[in-house]
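hiii so um. not sure if this is the right channel but i have a protein structure encoded as tokens and i wanna go backwards to a sequence. like what aa goes where. can anyone help
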């Protein structure tokens, strides 16, 4: 049977299996089930493994952290990495978020696009490949992840417990044509303690919601004379509002929110607030802290004043976002999210940034890091995936690098390939999430051909 015909023949079973999976609320929960991520996630894993067995594949379950099914018998393994956990449904739905309803050519429900739809498209692509009878020299493993949305602890467990690593593979949890570069992502937290003196005292400082979100608002409450407060109100810059209080003044700075991977698309309200505060007659440690944040961070988005404005031709420049700040009369705490280019290393920027903050009296209080990912365009994996995409869509394929991170970072030798086509609206994590039946099947066809070309 021709591979294309074999894929088309899977549509009814694929839709039924996807609907069954969507009806399982696989949101991570701390319950008393004994399973790593809760009963719902485990039920979703069990359903996927049972479906794979019905498709004729051998299955494995590594301690309920990750399961997989395989086809073929070669020593080298090609992997498809997908996940069955989903984000909470949230508000604003017009349909049952866990109903799996098919309406107007769309499958609706949480996970249909991210990532259950692509996972089952990959499963039935494997089934079609098996039924086509095409010879393979490499094994294919479809991995069912369970913790992508809340940290990828599933894949850390898989690697630390001796899970086999693929020769190469992809995750249908990103975009087409193919993402061959993902910037390194660092979240870092600092504390600055200080004593206060002089005519202006900081009472409260606040701004931002998360390190990877450009803050749209920030505020400070000050204790000062009425004269200083009135002068500040008179000279306040654009997008800064000053309100007189009994003790002094409240300053509210406005910005423009944006994702931390593209901070240049926003305006940082914390930076704007620091630049306003530095004009006041502050003294001592607090003055030094404000001067540093206003001068070395401010509203910059590339880390230039901190000395970490790295750049490469593949992914562009480093981005930096001062995401949150909280403080009072004795200390301030802040969190920064920065992303370095795909051909660079954390050692190229982290020591420089730390030294700058430490010399300004800040203490490091926390850090997390996801390494950059980069697979050269001329590699077998990228060349094969681009060729398949072009042949199946008729569209030009050029690899892309992104500032965000995908599930590809969880396992070595994996890149993101689909399921979102250029021009598609973003619908994952939103109300009324959906995947079109036509594009679900298109994904299945692309995945089937990609697996064959990689494994033959």
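sure thing!! here u go:
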């Amino acid at each position: 049977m021709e591979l294309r015909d074999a894929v088309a023949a899977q549509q009814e079973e694929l839709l039924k299996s996807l609907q069954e999976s969507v009806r399982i609320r696989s949101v991570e929960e701390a319950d008393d089930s004994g399973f790593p991520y809760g009963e719902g996630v485990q039920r979703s894993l069990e359903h996927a493994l049972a479906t794979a067995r019905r498709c004729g594949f051998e299955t494995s379950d590594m301690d309920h952290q990750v399961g997989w099914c395989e086809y073929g018998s070669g020593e080298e393994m090609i992997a498809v990495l997908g996940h069955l956990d989903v984000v909470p449904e949230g508000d604003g739905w017009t349909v049952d978020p866990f109903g799996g309803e098919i309406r107007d050519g769309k499958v609706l429900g949480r996970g249909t696009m991210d990532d259950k739809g692509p996972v089952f498209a990959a499963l039935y692509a494997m089934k079609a490949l098996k039924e086509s009878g095409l010879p393979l020299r490499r094994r294919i493993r479809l991995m069912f992840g369970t913790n992508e949305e809340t940290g990828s602890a599933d894949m850390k467990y898989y690697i630390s417990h001796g899970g086999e690593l693929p020769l190469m593979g992809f995750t249908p949890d990103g975009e087409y044509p193919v993402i061959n570069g993902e910037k390194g992502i660092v979240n870092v937290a600092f504390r600055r303690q200080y004593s206060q003196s002089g005519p202006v005292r900081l009472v409260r400082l606040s701004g931002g919601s998360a390190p990877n979100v450009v803050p749209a608002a920030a505020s400070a409450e000050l204790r000062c004379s009425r004269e200083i407060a009135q002068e500040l109100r008179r000279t306040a810059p654009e997008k800064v509002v000053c309100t007189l209080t009994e003790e002094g003044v409240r300053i509210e700075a406005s910005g423009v929110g944006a994702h931390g991977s593209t901070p240049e698309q926003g305006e940082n309200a914390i930076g704007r607030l620091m630049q306003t505060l530095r004009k006041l007659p502050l003294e001592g440690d607090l003055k030094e802290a404000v001067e540093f944040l206003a001068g070395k961070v401010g509203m910059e988005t590339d880390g230039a004043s901190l000395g970490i404005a790295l750049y490469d031709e593949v992914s562009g420049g480093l981005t930096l976002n001062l995401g949150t700040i909280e403080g009072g009369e004795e200390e301030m705490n802040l969190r920064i999210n920065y992303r370095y280019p795909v051909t660079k290393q954390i050692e190229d920027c982290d020591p420089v940034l730390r030294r700058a903050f430490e010399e300004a009296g800040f203490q490091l209080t926390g850090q997390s890091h996801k390494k950059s990912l980069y697979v050269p365009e001329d590699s077998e994996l990228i060349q094969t995936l681009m060729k398949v995409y072009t042949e199946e869509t008729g569209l030009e394929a050029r690899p892309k690098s992104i500032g965000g991170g995908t599930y590809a970072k969880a396992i070595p030798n994996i890149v993101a390939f689909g399921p979102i086509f250029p021009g598609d609206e973003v619908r994952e994590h939103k109300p009324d999430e959906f995947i079109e039946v036509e594009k679900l099947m298109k994904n299945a066809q692309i995945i089937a051909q990609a697996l064959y070309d990689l494994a033959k």
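oh and The chain has eleven helices and 24 strands.
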